[in-house]
């Protein structure tokens, strides 16, 4: 985990350093010159750097540039995994949304670009013998609800949040004082598969505003 006071300048410096395949995803002229960010490094199973994910310290949840990703080998679906090089693939792996969340539990791996889980499911199954998809507690976001539904229909194990649970993700649970052991116990308790997972998905989705609908598009 790194820190930079000016991520836009840092990204441009990486390009000048002959990292010609780096893609400045989401970066634009609107990003200020002084941009304080925590930079988290994604590595392959062999330890090679595959991407940098930068979290703006002063960002709000709705800011589009809250997270920016630099990929060593950019792909259209922004596929990069954080925590892959330290994961024990023989044990249960927690596939979460954010890199920070992946640091809070043993065998946590973050998927940057959760909408690509369906198209890359074959790769996930070849990497991990036992994985659980843990998306953020945001049933009001169509892409989150759709992605979790697709995982359920594909037969994946999924963690479904209890109704009206006050925390959005593992990070908020940790900030509220929950230990790693307590978080893992919570995840195990709320992990489902098959028809039960679908029932739980509908219950969770029902807590979202009525304007959110499920769509396979």
Report the helical percentage. 25-40%
Secondary-structure content class: alpha/beta
What is the strand content? 15-25%
Please state the average pLDDT score.
Answer: 82
Number of helices: 7
Write down the overall geometry. globular
Q: If you had to describe this structure to a student in words, what would you say it looks like?
A:
The strands form two sheets. The protein has a six-stranded mixed beta sheet. Strands 1-3-4-5-2 form a five-stranded antiparallel beta sheet, covered by helices on one side. The C terminus is likely disordered. The radius of gyration is 18 Å and the shape is globular. The chain has 217 residues and is an alpha/beta fold. 31% of the residues are buried. Helix content is 28%, strand content 22%.
Task: Supply the key terms.
five-stranded antiparallel sheet; 28% helix; alpha/beta; disordered C terminus; six-stranded mixed sheet
């Amino acid at each position: 985990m790194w820190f930079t006071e000016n991520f836009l300048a840092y990204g441009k410096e990486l390009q000048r350093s002959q990292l010609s395949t780096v893609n400045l995803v989401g970066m634009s002229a609107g990003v200020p010159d002084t941009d304080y960010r925590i930079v988290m490094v994604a590595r392959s199973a062999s330890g090679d750097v595959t991407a940098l994910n930068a979290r703006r310290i002063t960002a709000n949840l709705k800011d589009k540039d809250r997270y920016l990703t630099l990929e060593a080998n950019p792909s259209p679906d922004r596929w990069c995994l954080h925590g892959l090089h330290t994961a024990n693939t023989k044990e249960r792996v927690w596939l979460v949304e954010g890199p920070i969340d992946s640091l809070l539990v043993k065998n946590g791996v973050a998927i940057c670009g959760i909408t690509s889980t369906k198209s890359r499911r074959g790769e996930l199954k070849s990497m991990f013998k036992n994985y659980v998809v843990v998306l953020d507690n945001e049933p009001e976001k169509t892409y989150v609800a759709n992605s979790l539904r697709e995982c359920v229909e594909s037969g994946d194990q999924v963690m479904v949040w209890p109704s009206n649970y006050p925390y959005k993700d593992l990070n908020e649970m940790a900030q509220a004082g929950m230990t790693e052991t307590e978080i893992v116990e919570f995840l195990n308790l709320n992990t489902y598969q098959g028809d039960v997972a679908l029932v739980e998905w509908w219950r969770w989705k029902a807590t979202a505003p009525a304007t959110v609908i499920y769509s396979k598009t």
